[in-house]
Amino acid sequence: MGWTLTVLIAVGLTGTARTAMAEPEDPITVLVYVTNQAEITQRVLAHALAEATRIYNCIAVRLVWTENAATKYRFAIRITTKPLGGNPVDLHALGAAPGTKQARGTSSVA
């Protein structure tokens, strides 16, 4: 009786785990506008965009890159060498968002 119950529970839990696993959803597409004000090489830029695309694909987000400001983009990335309004940035930071206490993370893209 004990073995039968154990086997039934094990089989039941295994079946539940399989049906609980969700099928992969269609990726969400996000249009991202990129400006290369730092004038990094196209090779380096292409490598960075490909790596970001690969990382976001892992979470079912498909990034579409554009350099055309006239498109209706969702996010903007500005690659620049200019300081962000005199605010100190940690040298170990991967990025920073400009702004004020009233409007964090906003900036003119032009």
Quick recap of the structure?
The chain has 110 residues and is α/β, with parallel strands linked by helices. The chain has two helices and three strands; from the N terminus they run αβαββ.
Detailed description of the structure:
By secondary structure, the chain is of the alpha/beta class. The protein is 32% helix and 18% strand. Strand 1 (28-36), helix 2 and strand 2 (61-66) form a beta-alpha-beta unit. The longest helix is centred in the N-terminal third of the chain and has 19 residues, at 2-20.
Per-chain topology:
Blueprint: H1 2-20, E1 28-36, H2 42-57, E2 61-66, E3 75-79
Parallel strand pairs: 1-2, 1-3
Question: What fraction, in percent, of the residue positions are helical?
Answer: 25-40%
If you compute it from the alpha carbons, what radius of gyration comes out, rounded to the nearest whole angstrom? 23 Å
Order of helices and strands: HEHEE
Please report the number of helical segments. 2
* Gross morphology: globular
pLDDT < 50 stretches: 1-20
Number of strands: 3
> How would you state the average pLDDT, rounded?
73
Strand order of the largest sheet: 2-1-3
Q: For the terminal residues, how far apart are their CA atoms?
A: 74 Å
Beta-strand residue percentage: 15-25%
Task: Tell me the structural class.
Answer: alpha/beta
Q: State the major sheet.
A: 3 strands, parallel
